[in-house]
Specification:
Elements lengths: L1 E9 L10 H12 L3 E9 L3 H11 L3 E5 L5 H11 L5 E5 L1 H5 L3 H4 L5 E3 L4 H13 L9 E4 L5 E3 L22 H7 L3 E4 L2 E2 L10 H4 L9 E2 L2 H14 L4 E4 L8 H14 L4 E5 L6 H10 L1 E9 L3 H8 L5 H13 L3 E8 L6 H14 L3 E6 L7 H8 L27 H16 L4 H10 L4 H7 L4 H8 L3
Parallel strand pairs: 1-2, 1-3, 3-4, 4-5, 8-11, 11-12, 12-13, 13-14, 14-15
Antiparallel strand pairs: 5-6, 6-7, 9-10
Helix pairs in contact: 1-6, 10-11, 14-16, 16-17
Amino acid sequence: MRVLFVYTDIDVKGGARSYHFGIGILSSVLKTSGHQTELHYMFNDWDPEGFMAHIDRFNPDVLAYTSDSSQVRHVAKLIKKAKPKGLFQIMGGTHASLYPKCLEKIEGLNAICLGESEISFLELINTLAAGGNHKSIPGVWCKEEDGTVTENAPGCFQQDLDAIPFGDRKIFDYQVVIESDYNRMTMMMSRGCPYDCNYCGSPAMGKLSEGKYVRFRSIQNGIDEIKRVLENYKVKSIFFADDVFTIDRKYVKNFCKVYKKEIDIPFEVTTRVESSNYDTFMHLSDAGCTRVAMGIESGSEELRRKALNRKMTNKKIIQSFDDARKAGLKTKSYNIVGFPYETREMHMETVALNQMINPDSIVCYIFNPYPGTALFDISLKEGFLSQGFMDDDFISRTDTPLSMPQFPRKDILNCYRNFAYNVYKVTSIKKAIIYKAYYSRFGEGLIRLLDPVKKPIQRLAMGA
């Protein structure tokens, strides 16, 4: 079978290309079983004609899309446009998994994969190749010609992550991806998250299949994949994209020993204040970690506790950032504005907390209600969100679909655009001005205009 993977990255803030772990792994799984794959990666600009030309050139049997809720409106247009070709069209990813009703709504879509799909997707492709009945595969829902949907039983989480082949990075033109992200590769050592945040899709994803959700690769398996990437591409640093890199502190300690011995290039991780301490930060620092990123989301303990289901205290947040700094690590804080029930006063608590911890760099997003999350349901129930918001043409995480009387859209946008400036204006006016430009309504244009000199600008903004 010939499978064309389709991945849209339209209007994504930041300018860096993406490597999608799911597509990379599924491509490797299919190739290992004798199937042929290619990728149509629609980056930044909407180009349906190029998409159709790729179909004519590759002549696939299956079009396999992945999408989150921010991209699904683009994907739906492509599926409808490709429908006259008569190809089997299937979608996976977080949107299809957490909002399976999309199968009924998207014209031309034949099936969806729910959750992790290494097992179910391969079975589907093998069954289609053999001309068998593909409508009873666990983890796959299928739509009949009359629009009725067959809802099959869930699949199982793959418990042995080492049994999964290394991802196919070649189909992404991976050197270009690396260079677009400051010569940095991405890597994952685990799957799943043990926390239950109300704004995140991970808790719902963990309920879609049978078996243990939080799993780790063996350390050597991960090290071997890193070595393979380094043998084939020019890389200066690594970002570990695990949801919480330090869930298992013993695992981290052992990983750091092996990494320092066998890899020994700079790396960064994302973690949580609840899963970190000074000793763990010291192990990371000794192994070559340069920066840790931790989510604050809101500086209001009341909002975090009641709306976000994040129960850490501000005292613990301050302690974790201090511990990281004492261990010699740069720090990054993740923040979100525009949550349900939030007020401008609560947002200013987020500014104040960031001023106290003074992270080396900051990320701020506007809250986006993902279907399948608790805050999506709350947003609908409270009347903050319209039923058809996913059809609206707005850039995810830089605008809000919510309508809240206590925190109007214009105030949310103002807080978002001025957040980093307000944090840094006392300690570093240069950094404050750079962030002010980056988060302005003209920020994306400036990023592209200044692309030739973006690295020194990044070093200043990131505190490198």
